[in-house]
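Appendix B, record 7
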Amino acid sequence: MAEANKNDNGSFPPRKKITVVFVIGGPGSGKGTQCAKIVNQFGFTHLSAGDLLREEAKSDSEQGTMIKNIMHEGKLVPAEIIVKLLLKAMLESGNDKFLVDGFPRNEENRQAYERIINIEPEFVLFIDCPKKEMERRILNRNQGRDDDNINTIRSRFEVFQKSTLPVVQYYEKRGKLRRVDGAKPADVVFEDVKAIFAKAKAIKLAV
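Structure tokens (predicted):
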């Protein structure tokens, strides 16, 4: 938990306590399932950087068009844009507890977050799941996603290993990482997750 900062893009009310938890895990690790359970149990606002980008890309704004073009070209959206969208969503939510899903994806994201928002996460929940299990889950799910073929899945694994694991290691060195075994059934994983959240003094059950 951190005292809210002021910045050029907006601010939380002075001295308001803001709680941020990052949720990191590979594709198919069960992040979405656990985030939904955490929101229901602890009253967090769930924010996904990917969802925010896709939503902005659908808008008619100048920034939305730029994001759409960048994504269409298969390039990475600049971290500063992602973080400013995240901040905007946080300010508009009216909540003071935020669960940020799939973020930071890389060191650039992390550095931009610290530069622009600068609210230290309460902790970082890492859903650690073996590659073979994640691959099995993605191939078995029937969501009609274009990126659920085996070659694309393996490419996503490689990106996660190369870009996101250094972020995991950064927070582990800072004593902020909380690791759970994502290979277990979802309800069992959530028992481990609940125990982690229960130990955080800043976090109370949703009323």
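Remarks on this record: Residues 32 and 40 are 13 Å apart (CA to CA). The beta strands are 2-3, 6-7, 10-11, 17-25, 45-48, 97-101, 123-128, 177-181.
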